[in-house]
Structure formats: structure tokens, C-alpha cells
Amino acid sequence: MSGIVPKLVLFSLVGCACFAQPKKVKSESDLPRFTYPVKGNVADLLRPDSPAFNDFAAKVRADLESVLNNYQIEDKSTKRELLDAQLSFEELDGRNEQGLRTIEEIRSLEEKPDAKLMADLTDKAILEARLDSKASSGAPYQAAFARRFAAAVNALPWNVVQDRVKELKGRYEILSEPFIAGRLASGVQPMVDKSQAVDNETAWQLLNVRRAALYTIPLKGRATEALEAYVVAHAVVKPDIWEARDVTLSASDKLTPVLIGIWDSGVDVSNFPQQLYSDPMPGWHDPHGLAFDDQGGHSKSLLLPIPETELKAYAPFLPTLKGMQDQARGVDTPEASAFRQKAASMPPDQSRALFDRLKLYDPYIHGTHVAGISVRGNPAARLVVFRFNDQLPDLTFAPTTAWAQRLAADFREIGEYCRTHHVRVVNMSWGDQPSEFETWLSKTGQGKDAADRKKQALELFEIWRAAIADAIKSAPGTLFICAAGNSNSNPGFDQDVPPSLHLPNLIAVGAVNQAGDETSFTSYGSTVVVDADGYNVESYVPGGTKLKLSGTSMASPGVTNLAAKLFAVDPNLTPQQVISLIKDGATATEDGRRHLIDEKRSMELLKNHSHV
Question: In which domain, by residue range, is 505 found?
């Protein structure tokens, strides 16, 4: 999100003039909530002649201005989001000069070097082209855009922006109205169908999508040409730093078996036959771990169950998934090329089916991919699975207090298992915040209004947050390692759990690329103490295929891997000592923003007894 310096509202009281003080915002939950009626097909709001858009936009505009004027928001990510919604209105209204000023303000709030240079790059060229050509369509306007955009791209320093440029190119190569419509149908339409309304964050996203449909799509060919030329001219890939830092252990290292918990959406344990812990007295659960179904009940399945029809379609879908992943990162592979061709002719219903399938397969493959990263190079690793489904807004039933309490009991059971079975390290590549519970309530048609949903969500979230914190605290001998999040924001402000928690046996991990550069998506904050490779990381997925995925979900198990190796070499280490070895072994970047793990340095510190 984003924002501007709040305006002071003048009013009179008993004959004297006073200034109303803007409300200070300490967390995302301090911001007000709004809902906007939307009926029928949400994609209709994208049409240039949409009769419903003006009324919708008028309400959104009024509420957006009230937040900007009446709330003091210091969180830069939140300010950026608000300002981006403001930019949508300025672009839609033709307020070109004001829009350019807003873009400069957004860039001043960016915290990553590449984002400071590239935020709203296309929109800036669009606004400049309008001013240059004194038009918003036609050949002179398009020529002005091509000139402005190419000049802006060619002035960028390749060593700083290469990943973000490739990602932008990848998005534009598949951008189309049917593709957008399908994504909205999958992600937003369920909310409209159940509640006949959308919340304010969704409304801001719809504004952004409308401006992309009206102004970006007609120019995407010219933009893609400039990006392609820039990439070809600077086809230098930064070297991979991670191989030189990795450690591979062997039986000759006199290792002690170390239990690694994968607290995730499930694991295909058949991929790791030599690296599993088997509980000699499992009780109700599988010998290799605990599994809980969506309702919080006990389950015997360590891998998230999916319908039989989708299970049959899973293996044939993997090339498409790889193509989507490669395309999103601007990596040119045969699979990416095939996906581009498919996306070019994909109607909205097929696009929706694609995104619906992704929502199903993502949690199915996630935990297995994480597990593979966690155990590589460590013959002493023994996996323990803790399965639950974290895709809360996509669950089809409405959340209740009873449901939250059942899950809280499940989490306590996980913590107790870690303590009694001496699980040394647990990876948690997930996170949840109050806004997710609000979205879930909206998608299931719950709550009288936005304020009521916010209240319900906070009540549910507090049960959730306390249970996760209690589970971690109940196992003081276990080190918990979590992902920072992929929203390019501060998990502390967002109240994202677990990465916002401050606990002595918990650390959060940010994601960098193969060269150690910060990714565009990684979140950051006071709890994010180290960074690891989270960009195109290869690991197993169910069935034994290997796939490259990106996210802080892939960075966190990189640190889990290091922690497990340290415990395997010295089982007497405490979580706090391992944290010190990881942090002290990491190398800080010049800007001080990143602390890149180094397995060799941390292991050397251990051998030299340089830990406390």
C-alpha cells in the first residue's frame, strides 16, 4: 500500500479554529475497511463503456481520499499501495502531470534499488507520451510512447534491474484481456458471487487492472520490443554465488540424525525414502508425521488430497506449470514458449480454469518442494511432516470460532510433538494475516458489512496467532524458520504470522536471486535476519519430477538446510547458538539490507567453536 502526507482538516469549535489530527496507523488493522457493490461478471468493470464503473469508481475515490487525508501512515508499502490507487484515478482521468508527480512520490517510497528506478515505468511513459503528443491514442501518441519507454529502459543499469526487466517482459508477452478476465474470474468472482461486493483492496486492484486493460495492453507490443532489445543488448547473467557457499555432508563426518519438521501443506514422502523419521509408536497418525484436514480433524494422508480427476491431470499439467514459472521470471525455455502460444489464444473460461487449477496444485506441490530443499546434501536429515492447508481464502466453508479452536489444538499438538520427539528444526514456508481472514469471510458471504467482517477476522486471527506462537514457545529446543512473505512489504505492519513474531527460537528469511540480489517480491523487516536463494530454486514435486520455483518459501528451507547440518554435526547446539552461527556466518551487502547465508562460513565457525 502507499500514501501521501495527510492534509489537515480545518474546523471550528466554540469560535476557535482547530486542526483535526490525522489518525496514526501502527498496523494494517488500524486502517478502515470499505465494501463496494458489484453484481454479475466482475470483468465487465474493465470494459471502456461499462455503465457500472463510474458509480463504483466514485465510491472508491471518495474513500481513498478520506484515508489519504485522515490517516498518518508511516509504513512505506502501505503508502505505495494507496498512491498506486490514486495513480489509477489520475491516469483514468487524464490528469497526466499530477500522475507523473505521484509516480515520483511512489519511487521515493520504494526501498529496493531496482524498484526505485522502475516503479510504474510503463505508466510514466504513457503519461509523458500523452503530454508530448497532446493525445491519448493514435499513431503520434504510440510513437511518443515507444520513444519515451525505450529511452527509459535503455537508461537503466542492467546490473541493478535485470531480473525486474525480465519479469516485466515476461508479463507483457502474455498480457491480454481474456487472460486478465480469467484471472479475475478465478480470484475475485467467488467474492462477488457470495457477497455481491468487493473490499477496498480488491477495488484498488480492479482500478489497476482497468488502467492496464485500457492503456497498457494496446501498447504492450511496443513495450515488449524495447524490453527484448534491452535484454539482448545486455545478455550478461550474474554468476551464481551459492554453489561456492554450499556444504555437502557425508557419513564420514560422524553425523547425528537430525529431525526436520516440514510444517506445510504436505509432503510426498516417497521422494525421500532414505531421509524419513519413523515414529516407533505413532498412535493415531502416520509414522512419518501428523496430518490435519481442512476442518482441523485428524488425517492419515501426509500429502494434501486432491480429486481423482485432478490427480490424473497433474502430471500432464507440469510442463504448463513450468512454462508459467519460466515466463513469469522471463526465462526463455521451450515450456515458456509453449505457454506463450497457449496464452495468446486462451479464452476467458480456459484462463479461469488454468488459475483454478493452479490454486489446487500449488498447495499440493508446495511442501514436497520445500522438503527437498531442506534435506539436500545431508544424509543425517530425517523428515517429519506436519500437514495442514494454509490456503485460507480458498477454503469453501466459512470460518468459525470452533474451527479456529480446532486448528489451535492441532498446532499445540505439533508443538508438543516437536518437544517430545526432539525435532531440532522446523520449516514454516507460509504466513497468515487478518486481511486473509477478511477475504475468506467475504468469499463465503459472511458478515453484515466490512466493519463486521474486520471484527470477526480479528477475533479468528487472534486465536490463530496465539496458537502458532504457543506452539513455537512450547518447543524451546526446536528452531523454527519461516518465510518472510512475498508481498514486498513489512510482515510486522501486516501482522503476518509467523514472520511478524519475535521469539527466541524463530527467525524469518528473505529471498535473493542467484547473485544475492534482493528479489522483487521478498518481504522485509526487523524479524528478517538472513536471506537465502529464493529465485528459480530446483527441488522435487510429488511424483519425483524436479521443478524450479521462486519465493521466500524456497529461501526459508535453504536456511533450514543449514541449521539441520549444524545440528547434525553438533547435536548439543541450542537453537540460539545455531541462530548465532547462521547470522555470524552470513555476509552483509554494501547497502546493509541483505545478509546472505554462507554454509561454509557457518560450519567453519562451528568447527572453530566460535559460537556461544
Answer: 251-307+364-607
